[in-house]
Amino acid sequence: MRLSTVDLQKRLNPTKPKQLSLGLSILIAWLAGAIFIFALAPYDIWPLALVSPAILYGLLLPAMTGKRAFIIGQAYGTGLWCVGAFWLYTSIHVYGATPAWLALIMIALMGLGMGLFHGFLALLFNRVVGKQPLSFAALWVLQEWTKTWLFTGFPWLFVGYAFTEQYWLSSLAPIAGVFAISFVAILLAASIVELLRRRGGYMVVAIALLIISTSLWLINPQWTKPKGTPDLSVSLIQGNIPQDLKWLTEYQVETLNIYAKLTSTEWGRDLILWPESSIPMFQTEAVGFINEMVKMAKATDTTWVTGIPYKDEAAFDATQDKYPPFYNSVVALGADAEGLYKKQRLVPFGEYIPFEGLLDILPNLAGSQDIMSYSRGSDKQLPLQVRGHNLGAAVCYEVAYPDTTRKNAISTDFLLTISNDAWFGTSAGPLQHLQMVQMRALENGRWFMRATNTGVTAIIDHKGRIVERAPQFERTVLRGDVQARVGNTPFMRFGNYPILFIITLLLLLSYLGKRATARARLGK
Fold it and tell me: How many angstroms separate the CA atoms of 54 and 484, rounded?
């Protein structure tokens, strides 16, 4: 029996739900994405991390074309990124000297580009898999994970970060990382929508996962344990150097004097930590200053760890290279200290120019010969050696990459991250950044020292709790003690593989289930 197109559509969509107009759907989706920012630091209204994706889920449930679903998902993602990452405006306009109108256009283009992740999520949800909470949560985690590597990645605005201090859910972090938290949260959000539609079967699964997470929180398993050595006394130096002065040649000596003065009262502590690029010149240009600091550190039995641009002149081949490779690095010096860490995850256009080699074939491009990029550090670097401990390092926004931090944390006793968030002024960016460090501490069961130029400088324990915190935008020293810990969390052992396996299995089953349902309807 041959079926007409109308009959076929009726059998595939026997009860077509009512749809809002496309224009209204786009507006609601954009606003739903925009409000998500208030679920993260510094606002911490975590229920919005459920409300925001629940609205998108509800908008996508009515039968619709793939094109319409993609547009609605794109609108949600654009709202999410235009508002959630608006802190980029400060660096683009205030410090990048870009006109306000052009900076806003650049933010809008960024939002459109990053919104594609949710656009394709919605398209796959509409066309490929069954429309139910498990597949929606699996697709959500898939797009979050993809942001950690596609085109070097921009791993920001994950749902799981909203629950960093909600320990009834963040207890999943040391087991399967931030993506496991995102999965449960999205599953719960979508299941609530189904419950309101009187189809609450999926709530059983969501509640079961919440019970498991809460039980872990109550049982409080110790995935790692204290090393058994005395805690280290540490001093984190916050220089509060204005961003518009930081890299001026005429201000370099003043910068060094500021950090030296702040440090003068801290000699004798176990470890002194300076922020990212706190020495604003190559190590070859600051030899005298560095030698004086090392001399003082050794005389007072202090370890000194600092951020500094590092030029590797030994690797320079004048016949092949324009200039020696240089790195955004962390170096451990002074008493009982050794090691150099070179940043692995560089900021596109901030620390390197993508496809820089193509500029060589454009001889008429003004200034192309003057463009220089940082080099990437190896992903197989040894930890810093500090007072008989292994110290893992992360520079600036590479701490936002769960897997990179996990690899750096293996075989370490505690972790540090240094940054210069002055680029983002008084926006939410630095506070979101701090929240990510808390999640990395949870995932790896390690204490974190975080030294920044303008804040937020903090000491975070192995449970992701902020133990000490310095005020932002003040020239100050943060003192405290950190505990060395040993042992590996399940996340450190297996990384993202367990959650990726689960979502792959769910998507496969959902895809097969949708095909089977379609065949059954056609056979009626």
Answer: 41
Place 15 in a pLDDT band, splitting at 50, 70 and 90: low
How far CA 183 is from CA of 83, 415, 436, in Å, comes to 23, 27, 17
pTM: 0.92
CATH superfamily of 232-488: Carbon-nitrogen hydrolase (3.60.110.10)
Choice among 311, 342, 343, 463 that is catalytic: 343
- H/E element, 59: helix 48-60
Q: Is 338 a catalytic residue?
A: no
Q: Of the candidates 194, 53, 49, 193, which has an alpha carbon nearest to the alpha carbon of residue 117? A: 53
Q: What is the pLDDT of residue 1?
A: 46
| Active-site pick, 311, 396, 443, 463 | 396
Q: Exactly one of 194, 266, 276, 443 is catalytic; which is it?
A: 276
Active site residue 396: yes
In the predicted model, what is the mean pLDDT of the chain? 91
Q: Residue 157: which of 213, 124, 117, 121 has the closest Cα? A: 117
Residue with tokens 């000194």: 304
Helix (H, G, I), strand (E, B) or coil at 241: coil
Residue 326: enclosing H or E segment and its boundaries? strand 326-334
Domain boundaries, the chain: 20-221+496-523, 232-488
Is 276 among the catalytic positions? yes
HSE-up (13 A, CA, CB side) for residue 408:
29
Tell how strand 458-460 and strand 225-226 pair up.
unpaired
C-alpha–C-alpha distance, residues 157 and 164, integer Å:
13
Query: Contact at 8 Å (CB) between 253 and 495?
Result: no
Residue 181 phi, psi (nearest 5) = -65, -45
**Cβ pair 357, 321 in contact under 8 A:** no
